User: Fold this.
Amino acid sequence: MLVFVALGLVMTQVLDYLRFDWLLIFITAGFVVQNLSAQGDKFLEEIDRLGEIVYVIFFATAGAHLDLPLLAKLWPAALALTLSRAGCTWLTARVSSRLAEDPPTLRRWGWAGLVSQAGLALGIAGKIQKEHPGYGAGFAAMAVATVAMNELVGPILFKTALDRTGETARHGEAEAEEQPAAT
Assistant:
């Protein structure tokens, strides 16, 4: 764990010094390790083991930088952004699902699992806030608010979609209740 954290901190500083976007570099590195090497399973195990620590630090930092008075002014724009993103997600999922000739339940509910978002959006918002002092604070506050709204609604929509498409245990229990008992 210590090696993983140290490597991450050192590489972040090196990449920042070289003026590379370390968020995209680490996303690419994760993709390469998982998909193009034999170490993918070990990598995911370590991420699962360390994930809670990283998430607590990441989201605590995002929350600590949230400017509530500014957010109070920007909440209508954040709500509009959240709704427009959800609408675009719904529309593109419906169109692509129809073009792919997916089953009707997937056409109807496939979009619901795509609403949640967080990590990269918060990371980019933090970078914009740091690099553009004039409008960065407002952008970051709106991004955090939008992510928060998506994270509140997204999992509920996803669970609803799983229930409606018959992909959860609840659906299996309902099917068992509907079938008459053999006597």
